Amino acid sequence: MSYTYGYVRVSTKEQNEDRQMIAMREANVPEKNIVIEKMSGADFERPKYMRLTRKMKPGDVLYIKSIDRLGRNYEEIQEQWRILTKEKGVDICVLDMPLLDTRLGKDLVGTFVSDIVLQVLSFVAENERDNIKQRQAEGIAVAREKGVNFGRPEKPLPVDFAQLVDAIDNRLISREEASKMCGISVSTLYRRIRKYKLENEESVKKYTF
């Protein structure tokens, strides 16, 4: 007896899987057989996906919304497709691309057409991912030029930080003790002192006539 399964993946826990779930329901995939995984495609060690592939038997059908649900790049998509269809004898139906339905056209011509479409789409998927990364990198670079800071905001320093720096310079207190007083690591303290001194130097130059 063969079974029908659906695999839904979103890249982060914040993303919503509704669009993929709607497509699965429209394809009449049993709700209990839909596997949802929230994990980045950059890390292909997806436990739910791996359990599902081990569970499927020859004749079973796997539904996915789009080809990039199978992998993060051209090689991985091709490899997963080969494992599922050739090694495990599982049929795959890609809902966004009706031509990629291995239940149809199992003759030589049908297989040939399916293989060509798969190669083109997996290449497009990888190319689009690369383009997204490039656009993100360019956006971050532009934002940084405009003074936008990324990452955690810096922890505020105590109001008497200037006196603390003087005490360190005059060896009245060690940097290890000062870092504990500020609640930051020694390496962070080094960086904040350099920044503080640089800003003061620039301030003195600005108002010196």
What do these coordinates show?
- The chain has 209 residues and is α/β, with parallel strands linked by helices.
- Helix content is 52%, strand content 10%.
- It has 7 helices and 4 strands, in the order βαβαβαβαααα.
- The protein has helices at residues 18-26, 47-55, 74-87, 108-145, 161-169, 175-182, 186-206; strands at residues 4-10, 34-38, 61-64, 91-94.
- It has a 4-stranded parallel beta sheet, sandwiched between helices.
- Strand 1, helix 1 (18-26) and strand 2 (34-38) form a beta-alpha-beta unit.
- The chain is elongated and about 80 Å long.
- 16% of the residues are buried.
- The model has no long low-confidence stretch (mean pLDDT 79).
Helices and strands in order:
Layout (H helix, E strand, L loop, with lengths): L3 E7 L7 H9 L7 E5 L8 H9 L5 E4 L9 H14 L3 E4 L13 H38 L15 H9 L5 H8 L3 H21 L3
Parallel strand pairs: 1-2, 1-3, 3-4
Q: Give the distance, in angstroms, between the N- and C-terminal Cα atoms.
A: 89 Å
* β-strand amount: 5-15%
Give the biggest beta sheet: 4 strands, parallel
Quaternary? single chain
Mean pLDDT: 79
How would you describe the shape? Answer: elongated
Q: Give the low-pLDDT segments.
A: none
Protein structure class: alpha/beta
Output the strand order for the largest sheet.
2-1-3-4
Task: Spell the H/E element sequence.
Answer: EHEHEHEHHHH
**Helix count, DSSP H or I runs of 4 or more residues:** 7
The percent of residues in helical segments reads 40-55%
Number of strands: 4
Radius of gyration: 28 Å
